[in-house]
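pasting Exopolyphosphatase for the record, 512 residues
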Amino acid sequence: MKRIAIIDLGSNSIRFLIKEINADSTFKLIFKDKKSIRLAEGMGKKLILTEAAIKKAVNCLKVYSNFIGIYNVDKIFAIATAAVRNASNKKYFLERVKKETGIKLNVIDGKKEAYLGFSGVIHTINKTDFLMFDLGGASIEISLIKNKKIINSISLPLGAVNLTEKFNLKKEISSKKIESLKKYIQNQIKSIKWLPKEEIPLIGIGGTVRSLAKIHQRQINYPFKKLHNYTLPSSSISKTFEIIYSQASQKRKNIPGLSEDRSDIILAGAIVINELLNSLSSKTLTISISGLREGIFFNYYHSLNFHKKYNSDSMLINSVLNYKKMLIDNNVNSSNNITEIALLLFDKLKDIHKLTQNARLLLRCASILHNIGLKVNYFESEKHTAYIILNASIFGWSHKDQIKTAFIASFHNGFSNKIIKNSSYITLLNNKEIREIKILSFILHISEILNFCKNISPKNIHISETEKNVILYIGINTKDIHIIDYYTQSILHYFCKLFSKKLLIKHYNINK
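structre below
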């Protein structure tokens, strides 16, 4: 087992996390913290880190140094970005931090910062070609990605903190100031000759984009309180900007979804994003909460060659397997067999259910995680399963897919149609998607029943179809026949409701 600590000393905030990597290749987050220290505040034209900002940073790092000792951390990655790399008193600051905290900060350049942000995104959001940006307190890193590789990147001095100070936006705001800021940003963006003219997915990292997403979620009463991989239309950013602009700095903290410690710098950050969107053909913005810190982690993780133990076909499956093994390591063989049976039934019934390959992937995820609620309690384990999946940090699926997987995994054995209809998440699903959940839940349920017979093998399962019936042939030991009959009789009517055909189960003795 290894424990690593990652410190990201930004221009606005300092973020800290500790992750644990186990010998079986699983990993988990065990501690996380964030403090707004405004390191870039008050630097002025001479770019001097102020004594007040330095004290805040040092005091915070002292606390993190103590946590590093408490958690017996094996390796420390301490990174400083734009505020420190641009500071004229950088050397003094770094020496003071080392002397007072024992932490040696590594100051990275804009290209390295862009790469680490990219690494955090590419390991947690399933995109191949996209434009991404990381908007911090003193800079923005913009990168163009093609085929999961950085083609171009640039760092510009467009941060939420430094622009707020440069254009004096903390107190009185005038249209003249805003227009001057917009022109300044536009001129900076125009210097990027490789920005794509065609429509391309846009992914954003940083506190400003997270705040815009939170505000938007509150505006539309979005029921799923998750930011990673949340997509909002570009038109909503313009509307949110107008809401922010219309209110004085002191009143902005009352905007639902906006934290008080960001209310005075959100305007400048929102204008940067709005102007970037205006220069692109992108119609949406996807939020990534994975950035530099996660990029550092995954780079180190891969250096240990653990990625070779992972299933290489899907970011989502890798993440699901990690999550399952991290929480509950028993019944692994049973889950594997249920998954194999479920996917076999899905494939053999494809002409009947007519579902997509994405549905097959969700069934695979649900079958892996279907009994994870047992970790909490046997009683009402299906509800615990749904809760755990809905709140899991699993990478590679959309919000809708995460919700659907939770329902598939729990509905198969105890969740009723009434519970789905009464769920707040129902507003995100249409009738076609609810039907998809029911079909996949049925397949998972019958797969679990078949798995009760310990010697059952997917190669002994066959399906044929007539005009009125679907016949499921199962090769089992004679002594297991009553198990199949007992449990399937109560669910066969669901199949008829879904497909207007009867499901007949016939078994043959594999011992003959």
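The two ends are 50 Å apart (CA to CA).
The domain at 315-509 is CATH 1.10.3210.10 (Hypothetical protein af1432).
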